[in-house]
């Protein structure tokens, strides 16, 4: 007789078999029991903010509950190695800065937006082009202080996203600030629960889902814009009303929250975690294309995906067949399926549907 166990999504790996149906907040079955997990299922679960699933223990290897081994040191293939090295140095210094700021604010200290923004701005100022940010973030190593590095990443990506949307400078500033603050509520949650590799109790799941409300409560009386506060409170709301904490529908969700929701998911999927390997940006773009209808704002999402894909033009990639090539063309109608030059061969992933981009190198 099979035995079953509930495990967090970050411990879920391809090949495991579900021991129970995965159901969203509206009572709809997202993935039926006995499904063998594929990467697309992991993406879908993250889009719906599903925190855990029940799996058949006969399909779970022991290493699921162990940390991934340390990555081998390597030098990423970025266009300017010195710039990347300098960016990485500043980035690691800012990890402590954001940690200190978020704890202080959560304890009631007043927010100085200009001081807060120096965390993001110092990193943005070090970029030769803003587009290089995506490659830099992709090649940063895993860090146990994910709440804080994720806050930095989301703020940087929100800043660039805001410029793509042609928002006024004042709004870009507020959006960047909202990115830094969006997960401040997690400071109030026991970090051992947030980073727990084993089974989470139902009470622990419910506690994690309170972070957006806790974050809003921490800043609601601060002298900052209502847009920032709304971004913090609503960034887990979904267009179809299946999100939290308020269960809002599209028309009632603030624009900042719609933007942060997209960036939040993108960074979570493309970042290394202690218990979760990052996904290729093009695989994430593909799941956004296929799985996000009714969950994310499609107008914002289209702008985001198209611009991300174009930032990888000219970059070397590894295909799912093991071959190395260079991205030479992005299809605007299907940004996840570019044309890749491999030697003297041009491979159009629009037609070579069995191939995917596994890695940016």
Mean pLDDT: 87
How is the largest sheet built, in terms of strand order?
8-7-6-5-9
- The global form is globular
Low confidence ranges: 62-75
Helix content: 40-55%
Number of helices: 13
CATH homologous group name of the largest domain: Hypothetical protein af1432
* Count of distinct structural domains: 3
CATH topology of the largest domain: Hypothetical protein af1432
Give a count of the beta strands, DSSP E runs of length 2 or more.
9
- Helix/strand-derived category reads alpha+beta
Describe the structure.
The chain is α+β, with helices and mostly antiparallel strands and 361 residues long. The chain has 3 domains: 4-65, Molybdopterin biosynthesis moea protein, domain 2; 81-278, Orthogonal Bundle (Hypothetical protein af1432), CATH 1.10.3210.10; 312-360, no CATH class. 44% of the residues lie in helices and 10% in strands. It has 13 helices and 9 strands. It has a 5-stranded antiparallel beta sheet. Strands 1-4 form a two-stranded antiparallel sheet. A two-stranded antiparallel ribbon has the order 2-3. The radius of gyration is 20 Å and the shape is globular. The N and C termini lie far apart (44 Å). 39% of the residues are buried. Mean pLDDT is 87; it is low at 62-75.
Fold blueprint:
Blueprint: E1 4-8, E2 22-23, E3 29-31, H1 39-47, E4 52-56, H2 81-106, H3 113-125, H4 132-139, H5 146-164, H6 169-181, H7 191-194, H8 202-208, H9 211-219, H10 226-234, H11 255-270, H12 281-291, H13 298-311, E5 316-319, E6 324-329, E7 339-342, E8 345-348, E9 357-360
Helix pairs in contact: 1-12, 2-3, 2-5, 3-6, 5-6, 5-11, 6-10, 9-10, 10-11, 12-13
């Amino acid at each position: 007789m099979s035995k079953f166990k509930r495990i967090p999504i970050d411990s879920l790996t391809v090949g495991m078999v579900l021991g129970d149906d995965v159901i969203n907040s509206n009572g709809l079955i997202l993935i039926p029991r006995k499904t063998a997990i594929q990467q697309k299922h992991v993406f879908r679960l993250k889009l719906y903010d599903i925190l855990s699933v029940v799996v058949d223990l006969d399909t779970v290897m022991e290493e699921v509950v162990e940390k991934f081994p340390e990555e081998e040191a390597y030098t990423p293939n970025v266009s300017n190695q010195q710039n990347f090295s300098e960016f990485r140095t500043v980035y690691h210094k800012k990890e402590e800065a954001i940690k200190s700021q978020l704890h202080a604010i959560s304890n009631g200290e007043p927010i100085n937006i200009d001081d807060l923004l120096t965390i993001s701005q110092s990193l943005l100022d070090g970029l030769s082009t803003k587009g290089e940010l995506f490659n830099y973030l992709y090649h940063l190593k895993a860090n146990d202080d994910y709440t804080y590095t994720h806050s930095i990443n989301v703020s940087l990506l929100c800043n660039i996203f805001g410029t793509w949307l042609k928002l006024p400078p004042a709004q870009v500033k507020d959006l960047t600030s909202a990115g830094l603050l969006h997960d401040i509520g997690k400071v109030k949650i026991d970090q051992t629960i947030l980073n727990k590799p084993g089974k989470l109790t139902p009470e622990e799941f419910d506690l994690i889902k309170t972070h957006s409300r806790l974050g809003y409560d921490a800043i609601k009386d601060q002298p900052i814009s209502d847009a920032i506060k709304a971004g913090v409170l609503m960034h887990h709301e979904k267009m179809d009303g299946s999100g939290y904490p308020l269960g809002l529908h599209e028309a009632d969700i603030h624009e900042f929250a719609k933007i942060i929701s997209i960036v939040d998911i993108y960074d979570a999927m493309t970042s290394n975690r202690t218990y979760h390997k990052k996904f290729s940006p093009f695989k994430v773009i593909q799941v956004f294309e296929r799985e996000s209808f009714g969950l994310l704002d499609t107008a914002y999402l289209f702008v985001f995906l198209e611009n991300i894909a174009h930032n990888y033009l000219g970059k070397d990639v590894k295909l799912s067949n093991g071959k190395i090539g260079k991205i030479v063309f992005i299809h605007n109608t299907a940004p996840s399926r570019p044309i890749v030059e491999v030697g003297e061969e041009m491979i159009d992933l629009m037609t070579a549907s069995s191939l995917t981009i596994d890695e940016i190198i």
